[in-house]
Amino acid sequence: MASSLQMISSSIKLQYLCFVWLVFSGSAYAQLTPDFYAHTCPQALSAIKSVVDAAIAKAARIAPALLRLHFHDCFVNGCDASVLLDSTANFTSEKEAVPNKNSLRGFEVIDTIKADLESLCPGVVSCADILAVAARDSVFALGGPNYTVLLGRRDSTWANASDADTDLPAPTMNLTELIENFAFQNLSIKDLVVLSGGHTIGVARCVNFRSRIYNDTNINQTYAASLRKICPVSGGGNNTAPLEYHNNTSFDNYYHKDLLNLEGLLHSDQELYNGGCTDSLVVEYSKNISKFFKDFGISMIKMGNIKPLTGSEGQIRTNCSRVNSIDYM
Fold first, then answer.
1. Residues 6+ apart with CB under 8 A from 157
2. What pLDDT, in 10s, does the model give residues 237-284?
3. What is the rounded distance in angstroms from the CA atom of residue 274 to the CA atom of residue 310?
4. What positions carry a catalytic annotation?
5. Most buried residue among 9, 37, 106, 156 by CB atoms closer than 10 A?
6. pLDDT at residue 302 greater than cutoff 70
7. Distance (Å, rounded) from C-alpha 9 to C-alpha 299?
8. With contact defined as beta carbons under 8 Å apart, do 293 and 145 qualify?
9. Are residues 126 and 155 in contact, defined by beta-carbon separation less than 8 angstroms?
10. Angle at 24 (CA atoms; ends 176, 177), nearest 5 degrees
11. Do residues 308 and 154 touch, judged by C-beta distance below 8 A?
């Protein structure tokens, strides 16, 4: 009886969340502008793109890594480049958090970009803005939308690994938990479905999808069987599989198409098409890549505006992995 009541309560909660975030999902933007560096560092955007393009030409897997860095930065106390900081005696790096440890990549690309920009325009371009632009350039390099990035963020002087553990969405989350997680960042259900489409590129580790391929019932069995060859019941936790089953080398809408075929790699992926209020959005994006591209740009801009530091807040780090000593307390 108690279990039945819990199920009813969970269902009512999900229906309520769906209604609230479909009806009241406005946007609030910080004071960021696309031309922030027009006079102080006019070469900034081209310099970032040059390094990103070169890195992707050598290894295409760097594109999803750079996109993920921006996402994991913004979801933990805002888009402030805290994810790039190494541990100090005063705080533990977010790189050490469970969702990030031995998982995040692309730091060397960000370091190269920062070094180039410090040569061109010392102390001007923030690491947080580099992350935002590099994510956009990575998406575009693999065939995705070339949306406008708003600029003017500054860099944090601290990091919080425990917040990264709690604030980043987990691959085991159900739809209610995902909606709540995104709502905490003032992101809507639409943003959830759109930004999850970033999984059209990249890979996930066996440890993050093992439970799904052995326990979930809403999975294509042929697909599950192929994944079990990569991800055994025990061991092989760091083995990887593409997040998108059919066309993982380009940025497109096959992620949403895969969900219709019950071929979402992560439990949290398939939750977006599992009889809930997000089903219709998944169907829409699976049929209309232009709509997906347009909305992806809009949602990325919205995500990039999560609690940025601006004005005199924070600092402009000269090295993205550590705080400027003059400002450090």
1. 314, 315, 323, 327, 328, 329
2. 999 999 999 888 899 999 999 999 999 999 999 999 999 999 999 999
3. 40
4. 72
5. 156
6. yes
7. 30
8. yes
9. yes
10. 10
11. yes
pTM: 0.91
Average pLDDT in the chain: 93
Give the whole-angstrom CA distance, residue 196 versus residue 282: 10
Which residue do the tokens 């930065």 mark?
Answer: 73
Residues sharing a CB contact under 8 Å with residue 151, sequence separation 6 or more, in sequence order: 32, 33, 34, 35, 36, 37, 129, 132, 133
For helices 2-23 and 175-183, angle between their N-to-C axes, nearest 10 degrees: 40
Asked if 194 and 295 touch (Cβ cutoff 8 Å), the reply is yes
pLDDT, tens digit, 9 for 90 and up, residues 159-206: 999 999 999 999 999 999 999 999 999 999 999 999 999 999 999 999
Q: Which residue has the tokens 């691959």?
A: 171
Asked whether residue 215 carries a pLDDT value surpassing 90, the answer given is: yes
pLDDT of residue 29 exceeding 60, the answer is no
CA distance 100 to 83: 9
Q: Are 151 and 130 a contacting pair, CB within 8 Å?
A: no
Place of tokens 């989350």: 173
